[in-house]
Amino acid sequence: MFGWEFPPYVIGGLGRVTYCLSHALSSLGIKITMVLPINKGCNEEKIKLIPTNVSVKEIKTMLNPYMSEEEYQQILEGHDAKIYGGDLKEAIEKYTARAVEIGKKEYYDIIHCHDWMTFPAGIKLKKESGKPLIVHVHATEFDRSGGGYNLFVYKIESEGFKEADKIIAVSNYTKNKIVENYNIDENKIEVVHNAIETKIKKKRKPYSKMKIVLYLGRFSIQKGPDYFIKAAKRVLDYRNDVLFVMAGTGELLPQMIDLACALNIGDKILFTGRLSDEDVQRIYENTDIYVLSSVSEPFGLTVLEAVSNGVPTIVSKNSGVREVLKNCFEVDFWDTEEMANKILSVLRYRILEEEITKGAFSELKEISWEKQASKMIGVYNSLLRD
User: Fold this and answer.
1) Is residue 133 within a helix (H) or strand (E), and if so which, with residue range?
2) Rounded Cα–Cα distance for residues 188 and 118 (Å)
3) Which of 21, 92, 128, 248 is the most exposed place for a label (fewest CB within 10 A)?
4) pLDDT classification of 46: cutoffs 50, 70, 90
5) 48 pLDDT more than 90
6) SS3 155
7) Which of helix, strand or coil describes residue 7?
């Protein structure tokens, strides 16, 4: 399995998904060799190794799955370009060569790749070994870029989809994007939704004068942080007892701070920067509403995390999580007035909040990683029978 992130070296949801899926597959008897890129700044000793059936093979690299050429050059400063690659293309080629060398020394039946940077390694190893290839799509270039695309990335994705024996999409929403944007036969694509292990729902936090509305994710075009801020402005026009917390970091963070100031609501938006898992948990426990404002969200794992903490959610209609969670408020990401209306409604009507939260939490019982791992094993077996 060619992964990309793994706790505690996590930038986005991909790392958590890879860890949870691998853990569930392992518990069902699947043996996994996880080929994992490790940034020089990561504390390798703290990597959460999965018990039994999993071994981790590490590759030194400066890459991460959300990286642009400009970001790669910034991170590369002070490091040896001969080792890591002088540009993004060369860095991926070096990662691919090292990954394939590891693959040649392992025994396996299936090659399973997570997201675009691992696709070249999977394709090359398939050609050398003759083993079937699965590419697992957590996001496409059209999601990450908010509708446009980088031709370099698009070509890698297209080749991966073409060469794969099966494509795993995290939602029907993503499956449709692959069919429409990459001209792929829908019968080649299987949908395996993400999941979460149900926690004990939190008790309602004590009444407080200040209400908290949460944004949690990267500050990128894909995640729509500007729409969240514009909706916050509309809410604050009606009531001033609301604090909007924006947790995370990304290339658009400086622009979002400027936007909040331009709208004269800078004192009502708290930009936290990157948070530890413990701090994220504390924020969930004190949040009144979680908003997913994404322009294009293949799934939306943070919505399930919020629900598991007893938090009502407002979800962009351009998201895959709506396929497994019906008890949420839906809104077009661009309709900031309606987004604000839904925030105000949840804050105003306690019974509405309680009913939607209760229904959503019940739905989580049907969304487990064990069930999704069983679906994945079914895909594995279908390829081995062919």
Assistant:
1) strand 133-137
2) 19
3) 128
4) very low
5) no
6) helix
7) coil
Backbone phi, then psi, for 357, in 5-degree steps? -70, -45
**CA distances (Å), origin 361, targets 301, 303, 355, 365, 371:** 14, 11, 10, 7, 17
Written as six digits, the tokens of 228 are 């969240």
- Rounded to a whole number, what is the largest CA-CA distance in the chain? 64
Closest C-alpha among 344, 340, 208 to residue 285: 208
Q: How far apart are CA 314 and CA 327, in angstroms?
A: 10
Torsion of CA 213, 193, 62, 60, to 10 degrees: 130
> For 134-176, what is each residue's pLDDT tens digit?
999 999 999 988 777 788 889 999 999 999 999 999 999 999 9
Instruction: Cite the DSSP H helix spans in the chain.
Output: 13-27, 69-76, 81-84, 88-104, 119-129, 141-144, 151-163, 172-182, 225-236, 253-262, 277-285, 301-308, 336-348, 350-364, 369-385
Query: What digits encode the pLDDT tens for the residues 296-330?
Result: 999 999 999 999 999 999 999 999 999 999 999 99
The first and second tokens of residue 331, run together, are 């809104």
Phi/psi at 135 (nearest 5 deg)?
-110, 130
Q: Give Rg (Cα) of the chain.
A: 21
Peptide bond preceding 8 in cis form (omega within 30 of 0): yes
Q: Which domains does the chain carry?
A: 13-195+368-385 (3.40.50.2000), 211-364 (3.40.50.2000)
Dihedral over Cα of 39, 12, 164, 32: its sign? positive
Q: What SS3 state is found at 248? A: strand
pTM: 0.88
Tell me how far CA of residue 132 lies from CA of 95, 165, 192, 384, in angstroms. 21, 6, 18, 8
Burial class (CB in 10 A: 0-12, 13-18, 19+), 45: exposed
Q: Which of 23, 34, 135 is nearest to 379 (CA)?
A: 135
The secondary structure element, H or E, covering residue 33 is strand 32-38
Q: What are phi and psi of 168, to 5 degrees?
A: -100, 120
Q: What three-state secondary structure class fits 204?
A: coil
365 token code pair:
């019982």
Tokens of 146: 């908010």
